Amino acid sequence: MHLPATDHQLPRLSALLGRDLAESMIEVQHKNHDMGIKAYLAPSELSRNRGDRLFIYVNKRNIRDRLVTKAIMEGYGKRLMKGQYPQAVIFMEIDPSKVDVNVHPTKQEVRFHNSGPLFQLIASTIENALSKRSYAFLGQKVAKNHESPDQDWELPLVSESYGTYSRIEQDMLPPIKTRVYEQSIATEVPQVIGQLGDTYILCQLRDGLLMVDQHAAHERVLYETLKKGFDTSRIEAQGLLIPHKLELSLKEKKTVLEKGERLSQLGIDLDHFGGTTFLLRSVPVLLMNRTDWGRFVSELIAELEEGDLEQGYVLDKVLSLMACHGALRAGHRLTQEEMTRLLGQLEEMELPTNCPHGRPIFRHFAYREIEKMFKRIV
Asked: In the CATH scheme, what architecture does the domain 26-131 have?
């Protein structure tokens, strides 16, 4: 490829990956004593089914490395659905004496002498950058993080992730208009204007339209609430006025008898009634709107068969299942007050952008995007 010379990496990314993607990327860098990282991270909603848009460089040498790829995936975390890969470009600067480039004749495989700190540096840098990504209706939280004294880089409040281009690139690309929010917009509250298909909450923002998936949003709220309750041993349970009779399989019966105490930690009380019959006597308060208790308990037991709640991945799958079963369904009509309250709860969450399974919770349509859709601008 023959491309114009440039002193900056974003114009090159624009030429190689496309201008829209380059504009959406978050630029972040971090250094410690003997290694540094500079990353360009695409939003999780632009993830792909393949990892062919993960570009990794060590001391300006392109490499392929499972450890670094795993660290990138760890940094994106729950923002990705299962089987999805982000689009990202990672540049690492490491003391040459601490990396062996003679592992393979192609030089694309390397061996790091101290891989643990490198893994943590990459994962934490990506996680911190994505958690500080600006969203119009999350302005207060973003502003608070933006002013944190522990922050090692600056991310201005922007409606969309920003990009800057060198003058030589202006001949190849039309000017880029970056919308930068002033501090006053940080307190903006979305104005709920309706519900679409009894499934999506529609909100008007100063910079366009916000669509929120009510199930995904409520699922995130329930998941974090349940997790906080479990961590403090305070998942509130509610006794059922009339116990619900459940018929379990022999395998499920064995699991319940062995792990009944673990179920109690989750606010679920199953009483053995004889044979393979159990009585469901109490459930978490957050799940009181459930009616299909048989299916819920069977799926929950299946997750517990894989291991114990002390194992992080098992606990995560169990809480995600509980949140999914307890969340508002598509087709559930909400009042204006209920929609506003749900958005307020979502704003308080640690990860308000994705449900526990990685699905995006909302989509922001800027006025510019809407105007282009209707050919008001070209």
From this structure: 2-Layer Sandwich (3.30)
